[in-house]
Fold Alkylated DNA repair protein alkB-like 8.
Amino acid sequence: MGLPRFGRPKTADAELSPNLYVANCGPAVGFSHDTIASVFGTFGEVKGVYAADESGARVIVSFVEESSSQAAFKALDGQPCPELGGRSLHIRYSVLQPTSQVNDSVPVSLTASELNIPGIYLVHDFVSSEEEEVLLQAVDGRPWKGLSKRRVQHYGYEFCYDTRNVNTRHRLGELPPFVSPILQRISLFQDFRDAGNIVLDQLTVNEYPPGVGLSPHIDTHSAFEDLIFSLSLAGPCIMEFRRYLNGDWLPKAASSTDMKVEVPEDGSNFIRSAIYLPPRSMLLLSGEARYAWHHYIPHHKIDTVREKVIRRASRRVSFTFRKVRGGPCNCKFSQFCDSPR
């Protein structure tokens, strides 16, 4: 699915717009679309945050009301924004332009070996359909917290979306007993390297309605340890990955001739890959995949997998298990790491 096309107004009476083009802001400089929406949301209801282009460093912030975009423009244009790392934002009004359908899809892998990104593992049917129903009933019997487009539950420690981190001094308690069989199964699974040596103590449950995805991000290095497990329930989705390039560095696997990663030839600064996550599957991100690749779920209601059209279910629920980090991160991907060296 092509990116929404925005442009500067061409006529004087269209000078103002509920949409703002914001430069020096985006996943490539360390800020997710959810974080940007939270910052701009102080000026009014944000309809959505979109990539302005393929750079990852420019976004479109779309407000419901034009007065909200005016207030944000007046307060933030050319000014350092403390909530976004003190960066000076460069803002223009923008309008949505009609476009023809553009196919910018990337080939979708069905297995982690096809994807060929170091550190990714995928196990189909990690839980049975009966276990899936038990897990869904368990979370539906507990209170949800509403975000702008989805609902969440946190266990162990609450994940703070404004800082993309956890408050280690505020522990919510043990993980709920209904996930104990999942934790035991993870610890015994041989394909998940080092899984038996880590005590997972943080769980985020996300509920995604049809068409709602997740903006590109890397889980904060200093917040969590190496292994991140995500169990998909109720509905399928496509998860895409972006590796933003730094100088002439490329992932080791990029030299593989059968790798389903698009090495850019058009001057863009990232390579892409994608994998299909069916219901009841368990995904593990570790090593390079966890520390250096942005992962995200496109905002689609329909996905295309190997020329087969797959409609998203009435909802998708993910259980993401992590281990809260007790000290600074010492990974080898310093260009993506928030811990000081």
Remarks:
- Helices lie at 33-40, 66-76, 112-115, 129-140, 180-188, 287-292.
- Confidence is low (pLDDT under 50) at residues 8-14, 99-103, 247-263.
- Residues 129-140 form the longest helix (12 residues).
- The CA atoms of residues 132 and 184 lie 16 Å apart.
